[in-house]
Amino acid sequence: MPFHGVAPERRFIFEAAEPLADLGVSDEAAWRLNPAHRWLYNKLDLALSQGLVAAPAGVEPPEMGLKPTEPVFVRPITNLAGMAVGAHKVQAGSMAHAPGTFWCRYLEGEQSSTDCLVREGEVLWFAHTVAGDEWVDGRPVYWQIGVPRPENERVLSEWVAANLPGYTGICNFELIGATIIEAHLRGSNGFFDFYGPGFVPAWVALADEGVWRDPGPPPGGFLFSLFTRRGERLGLELSRAQDLAEGGVSVAMDLDADGRPANGRVAIVRSRDFRTGRRVLENLGATLTP
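Predicted structure:
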């Protein structure tokens, strides 16, 4: 089926409908399949489109009106192989100008992610996910899916209409407060489990026929991540991890071919209920090899 960039363990999500169009699930596939709108992956242009103070490496932040002691956020301008790799916070007056990066005024506030189904530049459906209040090395321990965020909807509807005219399909936006910090021409497929059975068929009908079949609001749930600061091979196998799951909870390992954590994350727990998911996460953590 012409869903491109689907991880083998996630194929079951996309069996609800088979599209005629080629639809990207990963950033690499989405960039390749959407030449007219791939500029969206340029995070410097994204920042400037919202009127943020930002510039490529080589332009000193004080030259753009920032005080040397003000914090700025430095990131790659475009990076499909791990969008946040290399991102860091520094003071405006002591920034190292790494090639291919840009800086932006540092933003604070709630971190959220919103998937949108769009027809000809009009957002028809939203799925909002909000980062929890527990973090490990700059990453949230859990995300809550299906949270009402009317302010996000206003911001994103206006931005999509102004910047993605003619686009039909799915896209994702990551925000801090009401500011877009990253955008993608694909959805957050790690959250699709909580969007309801009508979501994939609605996306396919939109892409293939331009027909809108409202899937309804996302039922919602929680995604937990088990992180470790150790890089060695861990003594936690998938079969054992799945044994620790409870009813309504799924567990997936996030290890590389050598059995080491992928980017520091060991496992993913998905649960409709916060307490149950949290309990499974803690039980998984207790099984790690010391």
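Summary: The chain is about 20% helix and 30% strand.
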